[in-house]
Amino acid sequence: MTLSIIPFDAPLGAEIQGVDLAAPMTPGLAKDLRAAMAKHLVLVFREQRLSALSYAAAMRSAFGALVPHILDQYHHEDTHDVSVISNVVEGGKSRTTKAPAGAYWHSDLSYMAGPSDATFLYALEVPSDGGDTVFADMVRAYETLPESLKRAIEGRSAIHHMFGGKRGYEAKVTLTPEQAARIPEVVHPIVRVHPVDGRRALFVNPGFTRGIVGMEPAESDDLLHALYAHATRPEFQYAHKWRVGDVVGGDNRATIHTASGGYTEPRTLYRAIVGCGAPVAGARAA
Ligand code: SIN
User: Fold this and answer.
1) Ligand 1 geometric centre to CA of 278 (Å)
2) Would 30 disulfide with which of 21, 48, 62, 194, CB 3.0-4.6 Å?
3) Distance, CA 154 to ligand 1 centroid (Å)?
């Protein structure tokens, strides 16, 4: 099969055709997929047939080391590199949280000292309607920021924490003392430089950003609100409508994403997160 990359008629995203993720990954294909991710920021692979283990192996060999999510209660029983995101109740216990997991704009694990590179989701069960995952392009958001906002964030950093943001849903999980100890507040530049192509992206998100370093809370809240209002404009978004067998990856260095509700039918995704190896590269002077 030959690799084809079909950009979406959307601000970001491309469909990858001609790739069977269950087949062994060649170094050449992995290089092409990583380049496609940096360019298009969201990649969609259709009609995949994977186990948790073969999914993890494919993501690892194409995109790099996987990071077990801190919420280990949702790890797949076969591998801690995959978390189960689901509303399906088994044995009287839901495999995820009560409200849809991730239903607030965020970049996965931005609260880690070395945040993630990318998140992948693999659909096992999808509702007939609703439950889209929506991505927003933070490169375009940065590039189109009004000059006054660019000046306001130039050289500044923000504090991130798993329960740090103004997400609309309150924290839906209670951490064990061991989990809480692993995620102290961290500080990252507000503008993240993409390590592959040097593009600058906004790197704050309503889910996990607690405030801007050196600003009073009210001033910080106002500035973050203005950044989020700009970054989540529809013209920067791609909404993925799920089909069973889809694998969808989003580049967390340059996008934020949110789950959406509006369904009651079963929805089960396997999530794999890549990266967390290096601190964020900060913005150069403009
Ligand atoms: C996530 O943000 O990790 C999950 C997104 C989704 O379920 O659509």
Assistant:
1) 23
2) 62
3) 30
Candidate from 39-43, 138-142, 172-176 with smallest mean pLDDT: 172-176
Q: Pick left, alpha or beta for residue 54 (phi over 0 → left; psi -120 to 50 → alpha; otherwise beta).
A: alpha
Helix H or strand E encompassing 226: helix 217-231
Given the CA of residue 260, which atom of ligand 1 is nearest to it?
8
Name the residue ranges covered by the structural domains of the chain. 4-275
* Sign of the Cα pseudo-torsion (118, 131, 179, 282, in order): positive
Residue 136 and residue 138: Cα distance in Å, rounded? Answer: 6
Per-state percent for the chain, helix, strand, coil, to nearest 5: 25, 25, 50
Q: How far is the CA of 205 from the centre of ligand 1 (A)?
A: 15
As its CATH architecture, domain 4-275 has 4-Layer Sandwich (3.60)
pLDDT in tens, 50-103: 999 999 999 999 999 999 998 888 899 999 999 998 888 776 666 665 566 778
Residue to substitute in 107, 124, 257 for testing ligand 1 pocket (most ligand atoms within 8 angstroms of CB): 257
Q: Please state the length of the chain.
A: 286
DSSP assigned state of 280: P
Backbone angles phi, psi at 93, to 5 degrees: -130, 130
pLDDT of residue 71: 86
CA 194 – ligand 1 centroid, Å:
22
